[in-house]
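Hi support team,

I've been running sequence recovery on a batch of backbones for a student project. Most finish fine, but this one hangs at about 90% for roughly twenty minutes before it completes. I'm not sure whether the input is malformed or the queue is just slow. I've pasted the structure tokens below so you can try to reproduce it. Let me know if you need the job ID as well.

Thanks,
M.K.
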């Protein structure tokens, strides 16, 4: 009896010793599994980091446009041509210097666009086109690829630099898009520069309005055919945009425009629509559009390029081609985009006769273009 009790006690003691030992062994095993899984994860991350570094062709980069359309060499005087080239270069160098000195892509985009907005050469800011009522209504948007934050303003008449307003909407308001008088009120409260609407008057743009109106009067079904008349179709060109990649890997995009000559009923184009006129996402690319706004809205051009990269694995160049050379023209629209991806590849794609454009890579190589070839 005594022996039996001894055996039972010994067996219980053995369990007391073995059980924790077994538990320790089990936990250790789990930990090993976990750490090998996290090792693997680190490897994957490291690989993708290595990958992206390997594919990075520019530490930073910047691209701008000043509108796409029927821009023909034969219609351009050498003086006009050099004026456009000089302004494009002046603008892109402002952004380039910001990026080179370690500044943010958002600052580069905003300040570069300011130069173009302050020039009467482009249909944005100072050079905005006229509405049917003979006033100027301006649209703009900006997007931060780091956090997908975005801001836009539409139909403002007194804000000197609409891109600054778009950025203030993004950073200082809980909203993404403000319009009309409310947007102007907000701009005032933010201390942005307010001008008399007459600031936006330029003789050339006013004459363009008169021309467009006169040619429309000769059209029978004029409301429907607005875009089929080449004078009118091309009366929107000169929108400006900028995309940039900074040294921290952050992408940003911005677009600013006066819209379309002779526009009516508070018409808003694609420029202030996030996803159509402007889009930026650090995972893919930054895009700014210019062209026939109605079609760019329907095709969601800027976001579509990013989506083709994200979901289909296309390169920026391939994605831009699909959207600009196929999707938009298939719908009946025309125009172009500028874009830069997270690795610093730059693209300037358009299906029109020309697009005012310029790009600069991290080494300072500058390209400026106006015509298709
Ligand atoms: N996309 C602009 C709009 O439709 C015009 C342009 O880019 O030329 O308002």
């Amino acid at each position: 009896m005594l022996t039996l009790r001894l055996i039972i006690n010994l067996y219980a003691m053995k369990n007391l010793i073995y059980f924790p030992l077994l538990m320790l062994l089990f936990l250790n095993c789990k930990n090993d599994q976990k750490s090998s899984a996290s090792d693997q994860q680190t490897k994957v991350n490291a690989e993708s980091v290595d990958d992206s570094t390997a594919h990075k062709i520019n530490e930073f980069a910047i691209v701008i446009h000043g509108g796409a359309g029927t821009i023909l060499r034969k219609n351009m005087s050498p003086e006009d041509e050099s004026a456009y080239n000089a302004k494009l270069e002046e603008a892109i160098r402002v952004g380039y210097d910001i990026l080179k000195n370690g500044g943010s892509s958002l600052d580069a985009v905003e300040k570069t666009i300011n130069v173009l907005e302050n020039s009467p050469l482009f249909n944005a800011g100072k050079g905005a086109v006229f509405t049917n009522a003979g006033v100027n209504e301006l649209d703009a948007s900006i997007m931060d690829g780091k956090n997908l934050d975005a801001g836009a303003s539409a139909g403002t008449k007194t804000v000197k630099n609409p891109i600054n307003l778009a950025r203030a909407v993004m950073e200082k308001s809980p909203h993404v898009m403000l319009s009309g008088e409310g947007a102007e009120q907000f701009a005032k409260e933010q201390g942005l520069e307010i001008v008399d609407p007459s600031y936006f008057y330029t003789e050339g743009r006013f004459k363009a309005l008169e021309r467009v109106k006169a040619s429309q009067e000769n059209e029978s079904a004029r409301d429907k055919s607005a875009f089929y008349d080449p004078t009118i179709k091309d009366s929107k060109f000169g929108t400006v945009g900028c995309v940039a990649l900074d040294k921290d890997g952050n992408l940003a995009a911005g677009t600013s425009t006066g819209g379309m000559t002779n526009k009516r009923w508070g018409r808003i184009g694609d420029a202030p629509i996030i996803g159509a006129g402007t889009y930026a996402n650090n995972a893919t690319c930054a895009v700014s559009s210019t062209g026939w706004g109605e079609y760019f809205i329907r095709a969601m051009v800027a976001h579509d390029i990013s989506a083709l990269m994200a979901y289909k694995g296309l390169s920026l160049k391939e994605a831009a081609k699909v959207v600009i050379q196929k999707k938009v023209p298939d719908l009946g629209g025309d125009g172009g985009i500028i874009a830069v991806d997270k690795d610093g590849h730059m693209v300037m794609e358009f299906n029109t006769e020309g697009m005012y454009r310029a790009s600069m890579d991290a080494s300072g190589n500058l390209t400026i273009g106006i015509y298709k070839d």
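--
Follow-up from support: It reproduced on our side and the slowdown came from queue contention, not your input. The two ends are 106 Å apart (CA to CA). No action needed from you.
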